[in-house]
């Protein structure tokens, strides 16, 4: 993702059995284009070799304050140079030391010396250690300092017990990092509703008609809107994708379920992104038993138009911002402007479908954002994450 590339991350690794996961976390950070400086505690080195992390980061790993480079005062220098400090996994010990303001190891001294750098802590420990009032008290203290926590998750722990204390999944830690590094929070306090994926219209209990929409564009819009500070609800038809972290998720199936869910949330929405590919037609008759192949001959399926969701919403629009999506192959701007005016939308995002290129299922997209005053902006071929950033940036300007 181009717009967060080049950020400088300090990754603190402490003495938890989950320390082996820090290698994969580091790989994800490097893949995202971050420059990462790893700092390990003495105990962490019993769990994972500094050489592993040095090789993945391409940088020397910092192991203690009093190294040959001590004259450069690493705890101050590294703290000032970083855009974010992430401690993953974070032990009960490091959480307690940070809450006490200790500075007797490089990692704690660095956090203490940081000024406006966000600090993100991903705890990993036995569930009794996490639940202990001492740990919970320390966590509250760190919250009061403005530090951020992600996890822990519930599940099976390394000690064989079950409970809350697992290091949260690495993509969730990455999402929190993107959220904290995204300094533009122009949607702070705004309630955003996103629809995504396809709807399915039942023929009988085992068959349906639908379309190829994967939900990727809408899921990215939901994630990116949260990074801009919005309170996001995602209404999704069936999709292979996992619900994005930090977003309220509502799963639906048919176009009429989608309509109900949108109307349920619409009153408390400021901006609606209609990225779902809602079916235009549905079978007139839904069989309540499986249609048998034997003896049926040719099956004629009669279809009727589904509910006009945008039409219904247009009636209740008020000063809410409605962003529609369309796929067009020719007369892009003209067709889109017509649709936008008819449906009372503020912005329409046109997915290009031309030649070999189809946005369906792809990780890439090329969008044209058309504003109701007729101005238009073309993204060029970008990832869907970047396309979401492009669209939201234009919506923010309109607001
Ligand atoms: C095998 C083993 C696994 C451990 N796992 C954890 C853990 O997951 N979380 C934790 O808080 N402490 C764990 N500990 C205890 C910490 O390593 C210990 O508190 C240590 O002092 C932490 O130091 P540090 O926070 O400076 O790295 C474990 C210890 C051992 C021997």
Oligomer status: single chain
CATH class of the largest domain: Alpha Beta
| Overall helicity | 25-40%
Structural class of the helix and strand makeup?
alpha/beta
Round the mean pLDDT to the nearest integer and report it: 91
Rg from C-alpha positions? 25 Å
Strand order of the largest sheet: 12-11-8-13-16-17-18-19
Task: Give an overview in words.
The protein is α/β, with parallel strands linked by helices and 399 residues long. The chain has two domains: 180 residues, Flavin prenyltransferase-like (Rossmann fold, 3-Layer(aba) Sandwich); 208 residues, Rossmann fold, CATH 3.40.50.10300. Helices cover 33% and strands 25% of the residues. It has 13 helices and 19 strands. An eight-stranded mixed sheet has the order 12-11-8-13-16-17-18-19, sandwiched between helices. The protein has a five-stranded parallel sheet with strand order 2-1-3-4-5, with helices on both faces. Strands 6-7 form a two-stranded antiparallel ribbon. Helix 1 runs parallel beside helix 2, helix 4 packs across helix 7 and helix 8 crosses helix 9. The protein is elongated and about 80 Å long. The model has no long low-confidence stretch (mean pLDDT 91). It binds flavin mononucleotide.
